[in-house]
Amino acid sequence: FVEVPIGAAYYLLNGRFEMKLQAGFNARILSHSNVYLEYPDGSTSDYDGLRPNDLSLQLSTGPGFAYRITPKLRFRLDPMVYYGVTPINRGNDVETYYHQLLFFSGISYRF
Description:
By secondary structure, the chain is an all-beta fold. The chain has one domain (2-31, 53-109). The chain contains no helices and seven strands. The chain has strands at 2-14, 17-29, 36-38, 44-46, 55-68, 73-84, 100-109. A five-stranded antiparallel beta sheet has the order 1-2-5-6-7, with no helix packed on it. β3 (36-38) and β4 form a beta hairpin. It is elongated and about 55 Å long.
């Protein structure tokens, strides 16, 4: 999948400690897919019942936190919930939605 996120954030605090609310949506575009079953003996076979969709959409939301170490250096923590709106497959037997709980963290430097 190639993921294209589009989002917005609203800062509640914007001092040495930053806090924001963020929301958006993601378009997940299928770039290449080989769906097959792998058996315990190592053999494989194609599985026709699960055909991934070329496009799936997710809503995303979560808070964001940052601590300013220096005027240009920040430590960030951004937990996010992604909720699948459209199924990622188009099979008749199975309908799978892609839901995620992610934690982004790191140090950011502003130029």
